[in-house]
Amino acid sequence: MLVDWLPGILMLVLFALEVPIAFAIAIAALSFFLIDGSVPLNIFVQKMVTATDSYPLLAIPFFVLAGGIMNKAGITARLLVLADALVGHLTGALAQMCTVLATLLGGLTASSSADAAMLAKILGPEMVRANYSPAFAAVITSCAAIITALIPPSIGLIIYGYISDTSIGRLFVGGIVPGLLLAGALMTVTAVIAKKRGYLPRRREFAGAPALGRAFVDALWALSIPVFIVVGIRYGIFTPTEAGAITVLYTILVGRFAYRSLYFADLPRVMKETVLDTSSVMIMICAASAFGFYLAWERIPPQMANWLVSLTTNPILLLLLINALLIVLGTAIEGTSALIILTPIFVPILAKLGIDPVHFGIVLVTNLTIAGVTPPVGQMMFISSQVLRVPMEDYTIEVLPFLAAMCLVLVALTLFPQITLFLPDLVYGRGP
Amino acid sequence: ATAQEIRIRFAHSLSATEPAHLAAEFFAKNVAARTNNRVQIQLFPGEQLGPGKEVNEMIRQGANVMNITDPGYLSDFVPDIGVLNGPYLVKTPQEYEKILASDWYKDVERRLERSGFKLIMANGFFGYRHLIADKPVRKPEDIAGMTVRAPPNTMWIETFKSMGARPTTVQWSEVYSALQQNVVQAAEAPLGSLWGSKLHETRKVISLTRHFTAFTNWPINAKYFATLPADVQQILIEEGKKAGAEMTRLTLELEKDYIQKFKTAGITFVEDVDLDAFQKVTTPVYSAFPKWTPKLQETVLGTLK
Amino acid sequence: MEDNTPVLKWVLDQLEELVACIALAVVVLSVSWGVITRYITAQPAAWASELATLAFAWLVFFGASACIKYRLHPSIDMLVRRLPVSLQTTVRLFNHALLLAFFVFMTWFGTRFAIDALDNPSPVLRWPLAWLYGPVAFCFALMIVRYCQMLSGKVWHVDAERETQVI
Ligand code: NA
Ligand code: NA
Q: Which of A104, A233, A368, B255 could tie A335 with a disulfide, CB 3.0–4.6 Å?
């Protein structure tokens, strides 16, 4: 029935009318509660508020705050001096560093949103200062964060494994190669764009060993922060979410006592920036949660899935179709909630058609994490754009070449299950 | 509204392969058959409509939805029912049925209805909860000092504290990595959930501690239930009871399968757990809830005689 | 009294940021405390994660009200920007009315829900969930005030440092 789709249409209309995105989503979701009538209006309030009751999302303020403190304390500056000495002679050096850093961070953190916040805060402004377009900086920092969802640990893969009854260990190992593939694709696009736009290398030739050595020694304390995170997580001192809070405290200690360049009087201003950035993102996630309830209640995603299966029973064709559908759906709904709604619907269909659940899980999580950078709704897009003050239309134009490359990776992952499966098969033996 | 189609949404937080979901499907099918498809029950597994506690609140607020919940969650509204979630209260589903047939329980049901919850089903056995760790746990001393994952729930926290363990709250979705990375040393759940979350990839010993004998409830909004035609009300209640029995049967049957599956996966089972010793050390848990009616444990155990 | 007035005015003006920053500190410290107690005390602090998520809700909704003051809620002006000026004015008036109506709705139903939640306890601390929903209703009431202040010409500036400088 058309009336079931009305809130979705209303959302797009309100977007066009310049209603702030968070409130456009919220009002569209509210229209469902008003039209449908079988759910009390109080529940709308509940859905908005309980979206904050998510432990993993705490990583957003943690890493925004840690990034803010690292900057105030001159930690970021020292890391960038080191990076400059290392790869400053490459074209588009800062953007390439962003992807490499995201790949390394991917092994530490489990949430793409948190990584988007960290990358945007730390590298975004540096790129703007080096005359990269702010929209490009927002795009590369948010796209690079997608890698985190594939390289273990990953919250998305854990959720998928639980709902679909798939081995989380196999999923984790399965994510590594696709994650690296995605990094390669992003770096290729970056190289082409950087060359075309003349995003210059910072110097003509390599900085030289003595300069590199000095930069390295000066950055030792700064480098101890990721080491501290890795050691803490690997030896189980804290969970990936808790790592955020501990990183904040550790960063304060390094800034105050190792570099002596952080003053406690600086903290209120950094904290104020953190709450403004966090809440403008989170209020959108809250509204998206109420909107996701409408989609689930009206069973809109399964309606689309059923329609899809009626089109073909060829597994490869169906997988490609599912990817296309998810890309469309993914423009409007956020990764984790989409994952929760869609996994139980697709998995029985796949089992019938003989598609490996690990293979599908990686494709699904990749796809729905890419949804985080497709306008008009996407967590990582919101985060990076907010930090760098980039309007959505500029972001949309800049993200297109990266989206094209990531869709190519998706198609490759879909057509060739072995890209995903050979590593888990190697580690765990062939799956059942 | 007699001839009209009645549509009820039935949400829960479990996966679609578990006995709880299969029993809900069984219920939906039978209700549709007996009402000539007049009553349609749509299932929403895997937290599609939100976590269990949120769906309970929806029901209380009057939304037309059912949920798979348990006495622990319902005790937020009628504290006394929480006793049914207590450690080592009953040993078998048959004993639990006796409690459900008692006057004490009838009174609890009335109080739940006043809070907005009509229970369509109360007798579905969810399973014994057991402990997965790196070492065998036969007696309370074996678990002393061990960091055990617990859900954010007073009953669990008090129970493991009373055993001398160190309960730590970790979200269920983070349990696997918490075990893998040694944030916690042990976790606990019915065998089906342990298997579903693949926790045996991280720990090798399951001790059959049976610290909780867990049952589920299916609440619906009491006012909404009262608006349904009398024949539909009766069918829902009757089919609910049948579905509960079906769930118990499936759970017991699968428990044996799971033990076999775990053994094939190289898991060691500890079967000679000193249940009496555990029952003894966990008795103080029953006095940790100030909102309960005094002597509640005695009252409930009295219904077993 | 006269001495206190500017301080009071400053506090009222910056109320959201003050509360949200305190909430942020509570989030960081309680999560850290949860980690630390796992190693140094006999019993890990089971309440830490619950307090953290409660404080997180305060952070988000007080912060969202602050974002109204600083006009930090992003919107898409692609289309409206291209309309004739008179039509732009009409659209903006419609938006103001729509947003204020939404804030009034959230205040009213948030308050009702908070009252209903007086007897609904949180899982570990057993605090009434009114501590979650009450402040949220208050934040939306505050958004009405801030939005009206803004429409009547009051201006808040983000720190000058914020736009130019970098993290
Ligand atoms: Na990761
Ligand atoms: Na999107």
A: A368
Query: Does the complex come out with an ipTM higher than 0.90?
Result: no
Give the nearest partner residue to A236 out of B42, B65, B181, using CB atoms: B181
C166 Cα to the center of ligand 2, angstroms: 27
What is the residue type of A395?
Y
Over residues B253-300, the pLDDT tens digits come to 999 999 999 999 999 999 999 999 999 999 999 999 999 999 999 999
Closest ligand to the CA of A148: 1
Residue C118 pLDDT > 70, yes or no? yes
| A131 phi and psi angles, rounded to 5 deg | 70, 20
A143 is a domain residue: yes
Near ion ligand 1, which residues have CB within 5 Å?
Answer: A 106, 148, 151, 154
Closest approach of chain B CAs to the CA of C64, in angstroms?
Answer: 23
Contact A348 B16 (CB under 8 A): yes
Is C116 in Cβ contact with B150 (below 8 Å)?
no
Cα–Cα distance measured from residue A362 to residue A354, given in angstroms and rounded to the nearest whole number: 16
Whole-number Å distance, alpha carbon C165 to ligand 1 midpoint, is 30
CA distance A120 to A100: 14
What would the 3-class secondary structure string for chain C be? CCCHHHHHHHHHHCHHHHHHHHHHHHHHHHHHHHHHHHHHCCCCCCCHHHHHHHHHHHHHHHHHHHHHHCCCCCCCCCCHHHCCHHHHHHHHHHHHHHHHHHHHHHHHHHHHHHHHHHHCECCCCCCECHHHHHHHHHHHHHHHHHHHHHHCCCCCCCCHHHHHCCC
Q: Residue B69 has what DSSP assignment? A: B
Within a domain: residue A151?
Answer: yes
Q: Residue type at A56?
A: P
Q: Provide, as residue numbers in chain C, all residues whose Cβ is less than 8 Å from the Cβ of B77.
A: 119-120
Give how many domains chain C has, as a whole number: 1
Instruction: Let me know how many helices (H) and strands (E) chain A has, helices first.
Output: 22, 0
Same domain flag for A171 and A33: no
- Of B52, B46, B78, B81, the closest CA to residue B65 belongs to B52
Give this prediction's pTM: 0.80
Centre of ligand 2 from the C-alpha of residue A403, in Å = 11
Q: What's the domain range around C114?
A: 5-166
Task: Work out the mean pLDDT of chain B and round it to a whole number.
Answer: 92
Of C76, C79, C159, the CB nearest to A269: C159
Query: Between B and C, how many residue pairs show a Cβ–Cβ distance under 8 A?
Result: 41
Smallest CA–CA distance, residue C81 to chain B, in Å, is 38
Answer yes or no: do A30 and A99 share one domain: no
The pLDDT-based confidence of C147 (bands split at 50, 70, 90) is very high
Nearest-CA residue of chain B relative to A159? B173
CA angle C47, C50, C53 (to 5 degrees): 150
Give the model's pLDDT for residue A105: 65
* Chain C hits for B161, Cβ within 8 Å: 43
